[in-house]
Design a protein that fits this description.
The protein is α/β, with parallel strands linked by helices. It folds into 2 domains: 159 residues, DHBP synthase (Alpha-Beta Complex), CATH 3.90.870.10; 161 residues, GTP cyclohydrolase II (Rossmann fold). Helix content is 38%, strand content 21%. Helix 12 packs across helix 13. It is globular and about 70 Å long.
Length: 367
């Protein structure tokens, strides 16, 4: 895991890393921020390919059963065309010809795209298997520590983080407007990229039976600034008040902005939504699935807090199933709504019709 953590930081800095795939080595670099395909070609000894997710390809009209596909890059491709292949809602007309060379990605190439997702970058990677002529130079750079190497299997598994390795870091009493007796407990993931907070409301020693629980994914725009595009801020404050009213419980504030795609990609998706796409299609254009969140970290937090049974405040069946799969007993579910407005109605409709969220009551005006 240590090497993966270091590789993620190198990737976010725009540096290439080596993914070890048996007797082959794959040189990998993030497309995001990359300006030079030629520099990578010189280092690998052959021209790189662009690896895209099946979600991105579906948005371009290409059906793929594999998780990703590799696209050889022509020498004539421009930087704008390259980035358009990965992020544009309407790639240039040249894209059709470029896509003719698509082939299912190798295991190491799938791992490369997974590294991008874990690093919260656009899930598109420049990849080149190291040629025989370039092998000696790559070996020397690895030996000198100028390049970092990770195993393909570790790269493919990195999206789940490191279950069971979450670290409880610090805590403090923080009175809230709707819950004066609240304690914030901060947890940090091993790679250091994400920190999550458990808001413990009331006295745990007084709780009996299933603990009221809210899993709330961070939303900077809604929670802090009151964005009208979503109902997240209202849900957050309503959850605190509801948990207080139920005699206390826990709110897990999870660093999973934009359903797990990160703030930068969430803002990109918002721009696509302004052009007419719904929230699911906008994420797909960027190469992401319907929901990129991982809830193993929530299970780890609950285990650290000695919570085994919960009353879950949610409209999302996926959260219920994720907790159950993690060994947490979900005794009951309580709906949690914000207001439906002209600004967020399209977003809420997409969550209900395409994400399976249980919003029938609020969308039909029954609340």
């Amino acid at each position: 895991m240590y090497q993966i953590e270091r590789a993620i930081f190198d990737i976010r800095r725009g540096l290439p890393v080596v993914v070890n795939a048996g007797d082959q080595r794959l040189l990998v670099q993030a497309l995001e921020g990359s300006e030079s395909v030629e520099a990578m070609a010189r280092l690998a000894g052959q021209r790189p390919s662009l690896v895209l997710t099946r979600h991105r390809l579906a948005a371009m009209g290409v059906t793929l059963t594999a998780e990703a596909a590799s696209l050889p890059l022509a020498a004539s491709i421009t930087t704008n065309e390259l980035h358009g292949l990965a992020t544009s809602e309407s790639p240039s007309s040249a894209a059709d010809g470029l896509l003719s060379g698509l082939k299912p990605a190798a295991s190491a190439e799938v791992g490369a795209v997974t590294l991008m997702r874990r690093a919260l970058l656009i899930p598109a990677a420049l990849c080149a298997f190291v040629s025989e002529a370039a092998t000696a130079n790559i070996e020397q750079q690895l030996a000198e520590g100028r390049l970092l190497q990770v195993n393909a299997d570790d790269a493919e598994a990195c999206l789940a983080g490191a279950p069971g390795m979450l670290k409880r870091v610090s805590e403090a009493h923080i009175p809230l407007e709707d819950a004066a007796d609240s304690r914030f407990v901060l947890f940090r993931e091993p790679d250091g990229l994400r920190e999550h907070v458990a808001v413990v409301i009331g006295k745990p020693e007084s709780w009996e039976g299933a603990v009221p629980l809210r899993l709330h994914s961070a939303c900077l725009t809604g929670d802090l600034f009151g964005s009208l595009r979503c109902d997240c801020g209202e849900q957050l404050r309503n959850a605190v008040a509801d948990i207080q009213g139920m005699g206390g419980g826990v709110l897990l504030y999870l660093a999973q902005e934009g359903r797990g795609i990160g703030l930068a990609n969430k803002l990109r998706a918002y721009t696509l939504q302004d052009g007419g796409l719904d929230t699911v299609d906008a994420d797909q254009v960027l190469g992401f699935g319907d929901d990129e969140r991982q809830y193993a970290v929530a299970v780890d937090m609950l285990n650290a807090l000695d919570i085994e049974q919960v009353q879950l405040l949610t409209n999302n069946p996926l959260k219920m199933e994720a907790l159950r799969q993690g060994g947490i007993e979900v005794v009951s579910r309580q709906a949690l709504y914000g207001s439906v407005t002209d600004h967020n109605q399209r977003y809420l409709n997409a969550k209900a019709t395409r994400g399976g969220h249980l919003l029938e009551d609020v969308l039909s005006g029954q609340r």
